[in-house]
Amino acid sequence: MAPRRQQEIFQATLGLLAEKGYEGLTVEGVADRSGVNKTTIYRWWPSKAALLAAALVEADTLAVEAPDTGSLRGDLEALVRGIAALLTRPPAADVAVAALGAAVHHPELAETARRFFADRLAREEQIFERARRRGELREDADPMLIMDLLGGAVWLRTVFRGLPLDDGFAAEAVRTVLDGSAPA
Questions:
Q1: How does the average pLDDT of the chain come out, rounded?
Q2: Cα–Cα distance between 125 and 131 in angstroms, integer?
Q3: Which residues contact 133 (CB under 8 A, 6 or more apart)?
Q4: Most buried residue, 26, 58, 141, 177, by CB count within 10 Å?
Q5: How many other CB atoms sit within 10 Å of the CB of residue 14?
């Protein structure tokens, strides 16, 4: 399938997810919205869950590029700002929240969530590899834990608490994770 056509299907999938939730997401609806025959969709993705999994991992809507600012601190701040933008600006915010809600209530999507976050961590790994080469990160530092702390802070603040992120949030979150909170 042509990449442009595939992105159209993914955009239709995520658009319907954001609008109607997982229960309202159907392959027929995706076919109607994307202009692709449903048998073609089923040929590539055997179920609604498989289609959603592919869309979450491969669609441009939820893409956050791994920055390269020249420093670990700068890269992590840029990454936090990117995650914050995803969770506060439509349509990505609606998609992310709907996908999280669907994964919580539908066990068949648990693997989708794992795959989505594993893909994101694999993309972010280069930030940590560069930081280790520059001597900015301990060899035993856990990139997943660092990203969980930073990403979790953004999710908790924006989605669960419904609070805005001020301009200094990214820098403060990164400072807290990298430097701690104890007095020097």
A1: 91
A2: 10
A3: none
A4: 177
A5: 26
Give the DSSP letter string of the chain.
--HHHHHHHHHHHHHHHHHHHHHH--HHHHHHHHT--HHHHHHH-SSHHHHHHHHHHH-GGG-------SSHHHHHHHHHHHHHHHHHSTTHHHHHHHHHHHHHH-GGGHHHHHHHHHHHHHHHHHHHHHHHHTT-S-TT--HHHHHHHHHHHHHIIIIIS-PPPPTTHHHHHHHHHHH-SS--
Domains of the chain with CATH codes: 3-58 (1.10.10.60), 64-179 (1.10.357.10)
Report pLDDT digits (tens) over 139-165.
999 999 999 999 999 999 998 999 999
pLDDT in tens, 53-101: 889 888 877 777 889 999 999 999 999 999 999 889 888 888 888 888 8
Stated pTM of the model: 0.83
Distance CA 28, CA 87 (A): 28
- Evaluate whether 98 touches 107 at the Cβ level (below 8 Å): no
